[in-house]
Amino acid sequence: MKQLQYSFVVPIYNEEANIPELSRRLSSVMEDLGGAAEVVFVDDGSRDRSLSLLRQLHAQDSRFCYLSLARNFGHQIAVTAGLNFSRGEAVIVMDADLQDPPELVLDMAKQWQQGYEVVYAQRTQRRRESWLKRLLAYTFYRVLRNLADVEIPTDTGDFCLMDRQVVNLLNSMPERDRYIRGLRAWVGFRQTAIRFERDPRFAGEEKYTFRKSLALGINGLVSFSRVPLRLSTYLGLMAAAIALLMMLLVLYWRFFPSNSPLTGYTAIIIAILFLGAVQLISIGILGEYIGRIYEEVKGRPLYTLAEIKGFQPTSVQVPEHHRPDR
Ligand code: UDP
Ligand code: MG
């Protein structure tokens, strides 16, 4: 086989309405790129006709390969699976809903040829997303930037082009909490941004519910920062300071009696609730980290595969638990 230049990794979860248009635009971008290219679709346990569309695509054009995960594992794991199986010298990660315009890859490829190992897309505008989502995203990325150990560029998603070296490094990371845009920043190398306006979804519904986005955000924070752990120390110190103040006040009232509203059991209940809250918050934060340790220690495979098409078993390092082509 000719040396593969480009791999497109595209996670698919119930995207039947987008696949025809997506594959059309990908084909034309692959023509313009020059150099051999493949598309690695990762079906993330779709329940609609997505998988059968992928089968058809592969039958028509063998550059369109696919993996099918045995259930829905979530976006980040689907992308991870795609990266594991991709073979190109440059790997492009993009969404299936055409919010990440495939044509931008032509510009990304130019930057890559000039020597950048990572070219990520940075959104300047999110059209027609609700103001609440935009506000939350805006705030989140800035909080993350301030707390994270590595500099994670703001307003970037997973849409990017990565050099083979970087993909190999990502593949060698065993961690299960895969906040890919963070890991990508963590590896270093020469990185550059391409700014673009994010279009609305081409068709179908958004798969990231508020809960999933929140979970992704917490993942990002906890995986890349230990500041939340320190938060419980700060809360504890604050509670101690308030307690000291109260002690002094109580002593003062003992010697100079007054009819302050702060005496009596109201004050006691407030103190109990306050301390209870501080303790529960601290335990919750600890729990986030311990839960992650537990998940890592179990060491289960990141995903299970039901079907693979377009990959010879010898061309990729298929992890032991995965069944061969069938
Ligand atoms: N996706 C996936 N598994 C999931 C949820 C989403 O593979 O459990 C894929 C989805 O098909 C799409 C991409 O992840 O290609 C981004 O999803 P979506 O457009 O809903 O997210 P957003 O645009 O809000 O980031
Ligand atoms: Mg989308």
CATH topology of the largest domain: Spore Coat Polysaccharide Biosynthesis Protein SpsA, Chain A
User: How many angstroms separate the termini?
Assistant: 21 Å
Using the alpha-carbon principal axes, give the shape.
elongated
Uncertain stretches of 5 or more adjacent residues: none
Strand order of the largest sheet: 7-5-6-4-1-2-3-8
**Main sheet?**
8 strands, mixed
Q: Strand share of the residues? A: 15-25%
Let me know the number of strands.
Answer: 8
Q: What is the CATH superfamily classification of the largest domain?
A: Spore Coat Polysaccharide Biosynthesis Protein SpsA, Chain A
How confident overall, as mean pLDDT?
A: 85
The first-level CATH class of the largest domain is given as Alpha Beta
The portion of residues assigned to helices is 40-55%
The kinds of small molecule bound in this structure are: uridine-5'-diphosphate, magnesium ion
Name given to the CATH architecture of the largest domain: Alpha-Beta Complex
Order of helices and strands: EHEHEHEHEHEHHEHHHE
Number of separate domains: 2
Total of DSSP H or I helical runs spanning 4+ residues: 10
Q: What would you call the structural class?
A: alpha/beta
Radius of gyration: 25 Å
Describe the structure.
- Helix 1 links the parallel strand 1 (4-12) and strand 2.
- Helix 9 (227-255) runs antiparallel to helix 10.
- By secondary structure, the chain is α/β, with parallel strands linked by helices.
- The chain has ten helices and eight strands.
Q: What's the arrangement of secondary structure elements?
A:
Blueprint: E1 4-12, H1 19-33, E2 36-43, H2 50-60, E3 64-69, H3 75-85, E4 90-93, H4 104-113, E5 118-126, H5 131-147, E6 156-163, H6 164-172, H7 180-187, E7 191-198, H8 210-224, H9 227-255, H10 265-298, E8 305-309
Parallel strand pairs: 1-2, 1-4, 2-3, 5-7
Antiparallel strand pairs: 3-8, 4-6, 5-6
Helix pairs in contact: 9-10
The structure holds uridine-5'-diphosphate and magnesium ion.
Uridine-5'-diphosphate binds near residues 78, 96, 97 and 207.
